[in-house]
Amino acid sequence: MLFIKCPYCGIRSQNEFAYGGDATVKRPELNKEISDKEWDDFVYNRKSPRGKHLEFWHHISGCRQWFKVHRDTATHEIFKTLKPHEEL
Amino acid sequence: MTQEFRLKDEGLIDRSKKISFKFNGKKYFGYEGDTLASALIANGVHLVGRSFKYHRPRGFYGAGVDDPYALVQLIRNNETIPNIKATEQELFEGLEAKSVNCWPNVNFDIGGINNFLRIFLPAGFYYKTFMWPKSFWYRIYEPFIRKAAGFGVVTHEHDKERYEHKYEYCDLLVTGSGPSGLASAYSAAKNGAKVILAEDKPRFGGSLLTSEVTIGNQTGKEWADKIVTELKEMPNVVVKNRAQVFGYYDHNMLVMSERISEHMPKTEKFMPKQKLWYIRAKEVVISSGSIERPIVFGNNDTPGILLSSAAKEYMKVYGVLVGKKPLIFTNNDSAYETAIEFKKNGINPIVLDSRKELNSDLITEAKNLGIDIKFEHVVVNANGYRKVKSADIAKISEDKTNLGKIENIACDCICVSGFWTPTIHLASQSGGKTKFNEDIDAFIPSQSKQNETTVGSANGIFNLNDTLKNSFEAGYELSKKITSKENKLSVPAVVEKKNSKHDKFWCVPLPKGKKYKRFLDFQNDVAVSDIELALREGYRSIEHVKRYTTLGMATDQGKTSNLNGLQLVSNIENKVVPEVGHTTFRPPYTPVSIGAIVGREVGKHSKPTRKSPMHSWHEKNNAVFVDAGLWLRPRYYKKGNETLFDASKREAENVRKNVGVCDVTTLGKIDVKGPDAAEFLNRVYTNAWLKLPVGKARYGVMLREDGIVMDDGTTTRVSENHYHMTTTTAQAANVLSHLEYYLQIVWPELNVNVVSTTEQWAGAAIAGPKSRDLLQKLFPETDCSNEGLPFMGFIETKLFGVYARIFRISFSGELAYEVNVESDNGNFMWEKIIELGEEFKIQPYGTEALSTLRIEMGHVAGSELDGRTTPFDSSLEGLLSKKKDFIGKRSLQKEAFISPDREKLVGVVPLDKKTSIPEGSYIVRDANAKLPNPKLGHVSASCWSVEYNNPFSLAIIKDGKNMIGQKLFALSPLKKKSIPVEIVSSHYVDPKGERVRS
Ligand SMILES: [Zn+2]
Question: Which one of B45, B153, B258, B912 has the fewest CB atoms closer than 10 angstroms to its CB?
């Protein structure tokens, strides 16, 4: 079980959190004409890297804030956690 | 029965407490402090089971967790527990155990024939033979193998035992209470660290219980006792025996199973059997010790052959002799301790040492005691079937390839020592790297990944002086990092015997012309010849060899077999062991009962139960409940002998005719507040929200980004910047997370907050033609007319002094209202509704009637919005705004989503107007078509239409609307039904929606 530092609450066990997917994906702006390919990249296409991955987690049984986790998918090492609009 | 093999006064057992127990139906006696194994050996019982593949007789090979043999079926408290290790099970009064894996019994075992047929059962035999022909597997092979193989029997009864879970945090977790564990725990605890010390055996001290050493001015055991006593008194230390740390997981989370009451008869009802500890440790000291290795020779699995350290432990801890004519076979000094111990107890052992004659403290002591030592000698083969009777021994050449003349000597046990293997399981599980240490022919931990330090013999350090020095140092350094204290203890002086170098020898060659079976893995019957065969057949990776031969795959996880297996593979492959590498160590280190993993989360405790504030009223009024997620909802209110069908029909009819009331507290409710709330809803829902006035509700549908319908519900504008959103019961939590995602991540510029208010409100839906009359009685001061409170209207008012909200919304298709009051007033509201509704013939209705009403109205719910349907599929396209963008809109342009082939919502009526259509039925054109019958779609929900008094279903079928009027079939292979049906509109009742507006 991972030990995750919520940027708002501090370090808690993984069972308080829900995984929320790739944090590098940006939703296309509303009302913008985009190609099927751009839309598919947003909705479906994901890399599945072995190694460093920036991802969203949701402190679902805590403060209910979404935040970013920079994690190694192979070793589970967590390098850093950030608020949603902080950059690495 | 006399305990013929019990020593007079040696050991740590309590001879004043005699304990009776039964093994295979026969009564025996032992003493308090015995294990089942030690008590059986004391009674001369060495045959306890049969091996897995060849059903060869099995005795005891170890004295603890390392034993690969002695699995028994335990009967405790009238419950039967499979695969208990006799070497770990403590004896208690009335204990009952049975052999496993033998049929019909342990002395005469049919499967033993496999032993004589073993030429036909080489490695991979099961893969090669029993897979072909395929049809034979189910009928012939599998039933036979099931009966003849397998270990214990799992009961089909519910496990009545209690298991508990505990979460704990500490600075330092120490896994094992041998000298290294005690020293590190003590040193860290004295430096202020919060320490947990775990020992899997009942007694603390590890090797100090059986070794002849002095620490300070005390014996090893005295020193261990003193340290443990002191640790137990320290407030910053938790000391646990019978506690096995079996798994090392991510981020220094370790899991430990503690045996709370397994070792005693059950007396207290609520006493847990086991406790599972989840421990998050800042640092871990792995002091798990080492396990003696076997030496491989002919028939080395015969009962009576065991590890030399186990023989010593049986004498020194349990006061039991494993035999009276012992043969000791070793390649190192430590077996001499066993020989000396025999000698001290009046038994004359013979020692066979594979090494050239040499001297060391121990060998000299043995010589001085007059022990018969044969250097450069080995055991070639053991004779005896159920128990070893004699050994063929021979002189061996210096290069260990040639055997001299074979001699037969009588013996009743053979104590084997092939040197020591560090127990690196936890270190390896932690993700750390291992390295091969040439000096000890074994792997030790090298580079750590997590905060873990391995000390003592687990790290390949086999002398006490260095062990204590390193462990005191480790405890100090690790605690200093955490506590920043510098209270360093001095290391006590040690007197121990110096060992000479061991012999790198692990397998006795076969004499010319002999084909003795030489076993590597004793539990899975993997012999040298099996590994040789696997390599001949081309298996190279050690992971593949393991799976093909099953080496190390049994419940003991190869604790005694791994290294010799690796040695063999490297010999054949002409490699060195580190090139071959070892297989992955995975948790658990020892078997863990499923009950312990599940803990208290069984039955009703497996999840929380949510009840509405009106729950007790429902109970009192004969509600039959149904699980709706975590909620308990009334399914129907039973009157007399009514069935579910009768009751739900009555309730639904009453709604259509008079008025009914339904508890809708479980609906998800979310407050959406802020100046940008309207804009936010406009993006979240598919329809337009910017112009909804205060005091009005609107039905909305939300999509996922992939265009699939996520949820639906009504949202009401309570005030300028305040909306009250409702979701379905099932999707409440998902919708909240979804909204938070968009507000926090995607559109943080929107000034909106959302919070769940589900538990704040009690809700009652009042539905039926007489609902307005009832409402007016409930709210006499409020204008409840069609003008005062129109369809989709909302007002805040008082219900006999209690704040209330009225929403004119309908799920049933009837004129209907939903009244919300604060949860605490829920029961008051409900009772008022029932009381004042009496004159209008009100009846409460449950989820079954609720379903009936919505199905015949063609309202979609969870069974249609099943995560596969788009708004087009579910007849919700009218709610798609063309003017604005919203979540998931772009997906709806995709070709597959607008394909005419998509399955769409329709209604289905059986032609005979009598036969109900099972939910899940397929809709097909031709009931008798060749299989697979092309499927047009499926029936999502069925009811008995109370409006028309015949069955009605909703279905999602290809080309939906164009199929209306067609005569098709509903097939339910499961219920063996084929029903001629007609496709109709999904809006079966009141298609124009006049009633809700009336
Ligand atoms: Zn938090």
Answer: B912
